[in-house]
UniProtKB/TrEMBL annotation:
HAMAP family recorded: MurB
Residue ranges annotated for the FAD-binding PCMH-type domain, each copy included: 17-187
One Pfam family cited in the UniProt record for this chain: MurB_C
Protein's UniProt name: UDP-N-acetylenolpyruvoylglucosamine reductase
Reaction(s) the record says it catalyses: UDP-N-acetyl-alpha-D-muramate + NADP(+) = UDP-N-acetyl-3-O-(1-carboxyvinyl)-alpha-D-glucosamine + NADPH + H(+)
Record key words, sorted: Cell cycle, Cell division, Cell shape, Cell wall biogenesis/degradation, Cytoplasm, FAD, Flavoprotein, NADP, Oxidoreductase, Peptidoglycan synthesis
Length: 348
């Protein structure tokens, strides 16, 4: 366990924005994680677990303990039909996917190059190119912050949805994911439904799918090691059929997909059609290649990002009547905060 006081967080989150926290602690074992939560010197402070910081924006100085997840280890078992992986929460997700491809363990390749830790993957049920974490998840192990026992949830119990899971609701702030179990079939079939993947032959290999995904992502998404960002800033809004029909009547070109509870609309398209690609406030800008991504173009502050996000929100709402919800988690002084709180404050 390493402890740092008043640590600058810019190296610990992919937006790369200057912001500090009162205490930063690294944890390598579940026992250390428990020690941090039980330590009397930090009892009164808010605490949050951080993976690779690829889905967060620290909006202010964090007056609490940031716990860096460094739980490492991967176990692989197999039977006649499946590979079973048990992955500790602090393992890197993109490294895991690449390693599986190199070991001829197929099934994760569509989720290549998604930054973050394996333990963060279930939180928002990461997804890309036709697959979500729930499609490969067998179980999730979490440390219950009330009993300090590790509890296993099977896939159904995780209540996965689009960028959603039980960890954002019933278990919010009551659980730390310490490990995930993946179940990957040996009867692998490529998943090629998503647009650009259709160019691949149905006889393609997992490595070919992996390479294709890496190629698409490298072209579209900014590399956070060079340009700070947190991936898609907003979620794609899911509209009711009636709301969608109204929108489509006025904007027949709107890009949409069927969703389990309505119609999912491409937020990137909505933002792009507002003419916002490249739009900049302070050092924060809308990415030129992908309007759903906010970048730290030039020493952006958290306020630059918030003001830009507010401008995007208002522009889309005024033009289409669609309220965007941010996917990126805003971490305030001692708790999570939301853009609509900030928008309301501006109005009053
Ligand atoms: P962090 O940002 O560190 O944490 C995110 C939230 O989860 C925080 O609230 C944190 O407190 C909480 N948390 C983290 N670990 C735990 C834990 N062990 N237990 C409990 N709570 C925890 N996402 C997609 O779904 N699909 C994509 O295609 C995609 N592409 C991206 C591309 C880029 C370039 C970037 C920068 C991001 C992208 N993302 C994508 C978002 C991001 O990669 C995922 O949300 C990822 O799972 C975040 O992992 P992390 O370890 O960085 O989480
Ligand atoms: N589009 C535009 N202009 C843009 C961006 C997008 O017109 O600037 C339109 C295009 O028509 C495109 C459509 O929007 O066909 C969808 O765009 P894209 O395929 O790039 O996907 P996305 O909906 O913007 C989602 C996820 C990504 C994930 C990709 C691939 C969300 C919020 N985002 O993006 O996840 O990688 O699909 O599956 O669901 C993330 O969550 O951080 C993330 C990057």
């Amino acid at each position: 366990m390493q402890i740092y006081l008043n640590e600058n967080l810019s190296a610990y989150h992919t937006f790369g924005i200057e912001q500090s926290c009162q205490v930063l602690v690294t944890v390598d074992t579940v026992a250390e994680l428990i020690d941090v939560y039980r330590d009397p010197q930090w009892q009164s402070l808010p605490k949050m677990v951080l993976g690779k910081g690829s889905n967060v924006l620290f909006t202010e100085f964090y007056e609490g303990v940031v716990i860096l997840n460094q739980l490492r280890g991967i176990d692989v078992r197999e039977d006649e039909n499946h590979y079973f992986l048990h992955v500790q929460g602090g393992e890197g997700w993109p490294e895991l996917v690449e390693w599986c491809v190199s070991q001829q363990i197929p099934g994760l390749e569509n989720l290549a190059m998604i930054p973050g830790c394996a333990g963060s993957a279930p939180i928002q049920n990461i997804g890309a190119y036709g697959i979500e974490f729930q499609d490969v998840c067998d179980y999730v192990d979490y440390l219950c912050l009330e009993t300090f026992q590790v509890i296993r949830l099977n896939r159904a119990e995780c209540l996965f949805g689009y960028r959603d899971s039980i960890f954002k609701h019933q278990l919010y702030q009551r659980a730390v994911v310490v490990g995930v179990g993946l179940k990957l079939t040996k009867a692998w079939q490529p998943r090629l439904k998503y647009g650009p993947l259709q160019q691949l032959a149905s006889s393609c290999s997992p490595a070919e799918v992996f390479d294709c995904i890496c190629d698409i992502r490298t072209r579209k998404l900014p590399d956070p090691t060079r340009i700070g960002n947190a991936g898609s800033f907003f979620k794609n809004p899911v509209l009711t059929e009636a709301q969608f029909q109204t929108l489509a009547a006025n904007y027949p070109d709107v890009v949409s997909y069927p969703a389990s509870s309505g119609v999912k609309v491409a937020a990137g398209w909505l933002i792009d059609q507002c003419g916002l690609k490249g739009f900049q406030i302070g050092g924060a800008a809308i990415h030129e290649q992908q309007a759903l991504v906010v970048i730290n173009r030039q020493h952006a502050t958290a306020l630059d990002v918030i003001q830009l996000a507010a401008h995007v929100y208002r522009s889309v709402y005024e033009k289409y009547g669609v309220a965007l919800e941010h996917e990126v988690r805003f971490i305030g002084r001692g708790s999570e905060v939301y853009l609509d709180m900030w928008l309301k404050e501006q109005q009053s």
